[in-house]
Please model this.
Amino acid sequence: MNAAATASFEVTVSDDPIYVSAIAVTGSDQPLYKSESIQLAAELTTTVFDTDADDMSVTWSSSDTSVATVRDNGEVTGVAAGDVTITATANGSEPGQAIVEKVVSLKVMVREEKSGVFDDNSKYMTTHYTDTKMVVTFNYNAG
Model:
Protein backbone atom coordinates (compact mmCIF):
# COMPACT_ATOMS: atom_id res chain seq x y z
CA MET A 1 0.00 0.00 0.00
CA ASN A 2 1.38 3.37 -1.01
CA ALA A 3 0.79 6.20 1.37
CA ALA A 4 0.54 9.68 -0.08
CA ALA A 5 2.16 12.50 1.85
CA THR A 6 1.10 16.10 1.57
CA ALA A 7 2.90 19.15 2.83
CA SER A 8 1.96 22.77 2.74
CA PHE A 9 3.89 25.88 3.52
CA GLU A 10 3.46 29.62 3.32
CA VAL A 11 5.88 31.92 1.48
CA THR A 12 6.04 35.58 2.38
CA VAL A 13 7.68 37.87 -0.16
CA SER A 14 9.04 41.06 1.29
CA ASP A 15 9.90 44.13 -0.71
CA ASP A 16 11.94 45.82 2.02
CA PRO A 17 14.12 48.60 0.65
CA ILE A 18 17.89 48.14 0.54
CA TYR A 19 19.87 51.17 1.75
CA VAL A 20 23.46 52.37 1.54
CA SER A 21 25.21 51.84 4.88
CA ALA A 22 28.72 53.19 4.12
CA ILE A 23 30.66 55.09 1.48
CA ALA A 24 34.37 55.22 0.66
CA VAL A 25 36.07 57.63 -1.74
CA THR A 26 39.11 56.67 -3.80
CA GLY A 27 41.39 58.86 -5.88
CA SER A 28 41.94 61.63 -3.33
CA ASP A 29 45.63 60.70 -3.02
CA GLN A 30 46.35 62.20 -6.45
CA PRO A 31 47.94 65.68 -6.66
CA LEU A 32 45.58 68.39 -7.87
CA TYR A 33 46.85 71.43 -9.77
CA LYS A 34 45.14 74.59 -10.97
CA SER A 35 43.42 74.05 -14.36
CA GLU A 36 43.86 70.26 -14.11
CA SER A 37 41.46 67.50 -13.03
CA ILE A 38 41.50 64.30 -11.02
CA GLN A 39 38.86 61.56 -10.90
CA LEU A 40 37.32 60.56 -7.57
CA ALA A 41 35.17 57.44 -7.24
CA ALA A 42 32.64 56.47 -4.58
CA GLU A 43 32.35 52.86 -3.41
CA LEU A 44 29.06 52.11 -1.68
CA THR A 45 28.30 49.37 0.87
CA THR A 46 24.70 48.32 1.41
CA THR A 47 22.60 46.91 4.25
CA VAL A 48 22.32 43.59 2.38
CA PHE A 49 25.59 41.83 1.54
CA ASP A 50 26.48 41.65 -2.16
CA THR A 51 23.35 43.49 -3.29
CA ASP A 52 22.96 46.97 -4.75
CA ALA A 53 20.90 49.52 -2.87
CA ASP A 54 17.67 50.73 -4.39
CA ASP A 55 19.45 54.04 -5.06
CA MET A 56 23.20 53.75 -5.77
CA SER A 57 23.62 57.37 -6.89
CA VAL A 58 26.03 59.83 -5.27
CA THR A 59 25.86 63.61 -5.03
CA TRP A 60 29.23 65.39 -5.08
CA SER A 61 29.85 68.88 -3.68
CA SER A 62 32.74 71.29 -3.12
CA SER A 63 33.17 73.43 0.00
CA ASP A 64 34.63 76.27 -2.11
CA THR A 65 34.03 76.40 -5.86
CA SER A 66 36.52 79.26 -6.19
CA VAL A 67 39.24 76.71 -5.28
CA ALA A 68 37.90 73.51 -6.91
CA THR A 69 34.75 72.37 -8.68
CA VAL A 70 33.35 68.84 -8.82
CA ARG A 71 31.13 67.35 -11.52
CA ASP A 72 28.31 64.83 -11.04
CA ASN A 73 30.70 61.99 -11.96
CA GLY A 74 33.29 62.90 -9.28
CA GLU A 75 35.73 64.72 -11.57
CA VAL A 76 37.43 67.49 -9.55
CA THR A 77 39.05 70.48 -11.30
CA GLY A 78 41.43 72.88 -9.58
CA VAL A 79 40.43 76.53 -10.02
CA ALA A 80 42.89 78.36 -7.75
CA ALA A 81 45.51 77.53 -5.12
CA GLY A 82 44.01 76.67 -1.73
CA ASP A 83 42.41 74.03 0.47
CA VAL A 84 39.01 72.53 -0.26
CA THR A 85 36.85 69.66 0.93
CA ILE A 86 34.91 67.49 -1.47
CA THR A 87 31.88 65.64 -0.10
CA ALA A 88 30.33 62.49 -1.58
CA THR A 89 26.79 61.90 -0.27
CA ALA A 90 24.97 58.62 -0.88
CA ASN A 91 21.43 59.34 -2.07
CA GLY A 92 20.32 55.86 -0.99
CA SER A 93 20.77 56.47 2.75
CA GLU A 94 18.01 55.19 5.01
CA PRO A 95 15.44 57.93 5.77
CA GLY A 96 15.51 59.06 9.38
CA GLN A 97 19.05 57.75 9.87
CA ALA A 98 22.38 59.54 9.66
CA ILE A 99 23.25 60.66 6.13
CA VAL A 100 25.91 58.43 4.63
CA GLU A 101 28.66 60.69 3.31
CA LYS A 102 32.43 60.89 3.02
CA VAL A 103 34.47 64.10 3.13
CA VAL A 104 37.96 64.29 1.62
CA SER A 105 40.38 67.20 1.91
CA LEU A 106 42.35 68.34 -1.12
CA LYS A 107 45.01 70.98 -1.66
CA VAL A 108 45.03 72.73 -5.04
CA MET A 109 48.55 73.69 -6.10
CA VAL A 110 49.90 75.90 -8.86
CA ARG A 111 52.69 74.66 -11.10
CA GLU A 112 55.56 77.12 -11.16
CA GLU A 113 56.88 78.08 -14.55
CA LYS A 114 60.55 78.92 -14.78
CA SER A 115 62.22 80.70 -17.66
CA GLY A 116 65.28 82.74 -18.44
CA VAL A 117 65.29 85.95 -20.46
CA PHE A 118 68.45 87.71 -21.63
CA ASP A 119 69.04 90.88 -23.60
CA ASP A 120 70.82 88.96 -26.36
CA ASN A 121 70.36 85.20 -26.20
CA SER A 122 73.14 84.58 -28.72
CA LYS A 123 75.73 85.78 -26.18
CA TYR A 124 74.55 83.58 -23.33
CA MET A 125 72.86 80.50 -24.74
CA THR A 126 73.75 77.69 -27.07
CA THR A 127 71.45 75.00 -28.35
CA HIS A 128 72.27 71.67 -29.95
CA TYR A 129 70.45 68.42 -30.54
CA THR A 130 71.53 64.91 -29.64
CA ASP A 131 69.78 61.73 -30.79
CA THR A 132 66.67 62.18 -28.68
CA LYS A 133 66.80 65.47 -26.82
CA MET A 134 67.59 69.13 -27.13
CA VAL A 135 70.33 70.46 -24.86
CA VAL A 136 70.20 74.10 -23.79
CA THR A 137 73.10 75.67 -21.92
CA PHE A 138 72.78 78.97 -20.05
CA ASN A 139 75.94 80.88 -19.18
CA TYR A 140 75.06 83.35 -16.46
CA ASN A 141 77.32 85.77 -14.70
CA ALA A 142 75.75 87.86 -11.95
CA GLY A 143 78.77 90.13 -11.58
